[in-house]
Amino acid sequence: MLLLSGGPPGPGSAASLRPGSVPAAYQAWVSRAGRLCPQVTPPLIAAQVEAESRWRPMARSSVGAQGMAQFMPATWASYGRDADGDGITSPDDPEDAIMAMARYDCALVRTIARLPGDLTSNMLAAYNAGPAAVLHHKGIPQYPETQEYVRRVLARVAHYTDTSITAISATRFGAAVVATAQRWLGTPYAWGGGGPGGPTRGIGRATGIIGFDCSGLVLHAVWAASGGRVQLPHLAAAQATKYGTPVPRDQLLPGDVIGIDHRDGRGISHIVIYMGRGQVIHAPRPGDVVRIAPLSAFTSATWTIRRYA
Question: Which residues lie across from 136 on neighbouring strands?
Answer without folding.
Answer: none
